[in-house]
Amino acid sequence: MTYRTSLTALALALAGLAAHPSAAGATATVAASASATANPSSSSGVSSVQWKSCPAYSDEVIRSLRVAEDKVAAFRSLMKRLECGTVSVPLNHRDPSGRKIDIVVTRLAATDEAHRLGAIAVLPGGPGNSGYLDPVLRAALRNEEMAALNERYDIIGFDPRGVGNSTKVACTFSPGGPQEPGTLTKEAARKKYDAQVAANQKCGRSDPAFLGQLTTENVAKDLDLVRTALGESKLNLLGFSWGTYLGMVYRSLFPGHTGRAFLDSVAPPWTRIDEHAKDSAEAAEHNFGRMAAWLARRDGTYGLGATARKVREEVAKLVRAYDKIPKTYTDLQRPIDGSAVADLARRNSTEWARAGKALAELRTATGTTAPPAVKELLGAPMMGTPVPGAPETLNRTMNLAVACNEDSSRAGFDTAWRDYQQLVKRHPATGRSWGLPVMCPGWPLPVQQATLKRSSGSLVLAGHLHEFMSVYDWTLQTRRAIGGTVYTVADDVHVSTTRVPKCAADVVRYFETGQIAKGCEGSAIPS
Fold it and tell me: Are 380 and 118 in contact (CB under 8 A)?
């Protein structure tokens, strides 16, 4: 999930942050320290990879990584092939002889070494997602089609700086006080905004020397040092979500070191969070029109209306009703108000059946416990102790720092409140799900934005026609900015391309031959 493409960061940031005093400059325990043999820079020698044993995981941890029961044995087999190590890089690439940090890297070597074509680096989402298990989870274990990618390519994974087993720091996320359900008033919004300013200032000032170096450009420069340490003349790129922006930046900085690049659910070629929220909200409401038409054709099952217009009106009515009188269920953490109803309305097509059932339940619910589908979709599990030994999958500090270091909007309250009111007015079914569209007010560190450039290298931009997490028009904007070939996926599901066998086959064929089809159907709409 990514602030540019998943909006996770926006939701998380509204929860509030406080600096963690003991974390500044801390290096993750698993990332063993590596000594540089020379000053790490793209134009000089770099440290080699310091290889070490890969971690061992219990069955409980493997399942927590969403590995299906029938694939646990295959996961363990792949882990025996996986190589794990660290590469030492400069914290500040403008000062290559200064402080060093560790980047954790993994490699799943090509099985057909005689016909090996090179190495593919998997670029994770976020910002802030871990990627060192991606060679296993996103490639070899995903499906038969993606497994074929590992026959002629080494698959490279890594934890970006600030994430997982690479060097990182931490700000502590706190709830930021009780959130009153119901219509968001200007007074309540102002309190949330002020709390966000204070939390961002506290976090940003906790370790500015490290947090100020958390940028997409620095991650791209780290990756190029990883390339050199691995002895590769070029890296091919397979990017997802925020990883697509990382791929754009890497390709702009190092065109001569970039081979074929396939970027799935493409980020925009700019980094304004206010514009991101505006575009995503518009796309979500538009996609709800598809959902409304689907529900209308099944009015006998859901009872929300026999036409798309009637369904739209009914859902908008539910949003208003639950904002006016929120409902608290004894078995749900989250009160059900208009924002919860709107959250159901912006689900993608793989969840239309369950979301439609939940919306139907909310029309007639009278009990003290949540109806089944409402509980299934809106019943966030209680925060508990993480599974012991499980790797970090998302680092929220890195997520916030990269987003805010690169966000040039940083809207004031009056602007944010006006934008929120317009958003809710324009998008009556889904608009309430977004909240106040701000993330970085008060962030004390300067804005740092990468410069994207065109190059003649092979580039495929996979845009999904109906999704809101990576709006399809962003794919077209990115092509205009840096070139490439658009591959259109006719679904609304974020980064689904490698999960759908027919689409995944196109991805593998592209890396093997350089040829790409015009697109694929993507995830099927439920019958």
Answer: no
pLDDT value of position 180: 83
Neighbours of 187 (CB within 10 A): 8
Q: Please state, in angstroms and rounded to a whole number, the distance separating the CA atoms of residues 318 and 338.
A: 7
* DSSP of 293-304: HHHHTTHHHH-S
Distance CA 112, CA 129 (A): 30
Which position has the token pair 């495929």?
A: 460
The CA distance from 516 to 507, in Å, is 8
Average pLDDT over residues 38-59: 72
**Amino acid of residue 193:** Y
Q: Give pLDDT, residue 369.
A: 94
Cβ atoms within 10 Å, residue 383: 8
Strands (E), 428-470: 459-464
The one-letter amino acid at 394: L
Please check whether residue 235 is in contact with residue 42, taking contact to mean a CB–CB distance below 8 angstroms.
no
Q: Between helices 352-364 and 338-345, what is the axis angle to 10°?
A: 150
Structure tokens belonging to residue 391: 């790797």
- CA–CA separation, 418 and 291 (whole Å): 28
pLDDT digits (tens, 9 = 90+) for 215-272: 999 999 999 999 999 999 999 999 999 999 999 999 999 999 999 999 999 999 999 9
DSSP for 50-91, written as a single string: EEEPPPP--HHHHHHTT--GGGHHHHHHHHHH-EEEEEEEES
Task: Tally the residues of the chain.
Answer: 527
Q: Around Cβ 141, how many Cβ atoms within 10 Å?
A: 19
pLDDT band at 381 (very low <50, low <70, confident <90, very high): low
Q: Is the peptide bond before 178 cis (omega within 30 degrees of 0)?
A: no
Look at residue 252 and give its three-state secondary structure.
helix
The strand pairing partners of 89, in sequence order, are 101
Nearest alpha carbon to residue 244 among 269, 281, 274: 269
Q: How are beta strands 485-489 and 519-520 bridged, if at all?
A: parallel
List phi, psi (to 5°) of 477.
-65, -40
Please tell me the pTM assigned to this model: 0.91
Residue 53 DSSP symbol: P
Report the percentage of the chain scoring pLDDT > 70.
89
CA separation for the pair 90, 205 (Å, rounded):
21
Six-digit token string for 360: 């139907």
User: 67 vs 526, which has greater pLDDT?
Assistant: 67
354 backbone dihedrals φ, ψ, rounded to 5°:
-70, -40
pLDDT given at position 41: 40
Please check whether residue 331 is in contact with residue 367, taking contact to mean a CB–CB distance below 8 angstroms: no
The predicted model gives 94-114 an average pLDDT of: 97
Integer Cα distance of 322 and 278 in angstroms: 24
